[in-house]
Amino acid sequence: MDIGNRRTTSHDDIDDEPLEEAELGERELFYANVAEFVTEHLAYQYRRDIDLAGRSTTFTWCAQWWRHEEAVSRLTGLWRAWESLRTDPTTGLAVWWRDYADPTMRVLFDEKGPFHGCTPRTHSPKGIPLPLDTPPAELFE
Predict the structure, then answer these.
(1) What pTM value is reported for the model?
(2) Distances (CA, A) of 61 to 44, 47, 94
(3) In contact, 32 and 6? CB cutoff 8 Å
(4) pLDDT tens, residue by residue, 94-116
């Protein structure tokens, strides 16, 4: 993931005006990518007492979150939802927190979640991909 090309845009630059229908598909992103969203926004929104040695089981986090496929997928969804809801001047951010941020972060912070085995300083995941058997070919025809 490219975390270069960072823009220096303040939150005051967020356009709260409703978008015209033609603009909805071409909305300018506030953050260029998920890495920028996590490092410039989310990390500051979620301030927690995290034991850097990883001894506490209250909150689990991996500083190398981008090495966890599940975390990248969840955080990308969280970023996309934020980008979509940030321009709603009524309940957009409340909906983002309630329906997206808090449920996503509960899973990521969970002791047995995607960062299980890691500490804020060490990437050492313990999980393995789910075991799979090949489904019958005719099942999806």
Answers:
(1) 0.74
(2) 14, 12, 24
(3) yes
(4) 999 999 999 999 999 988 899 98
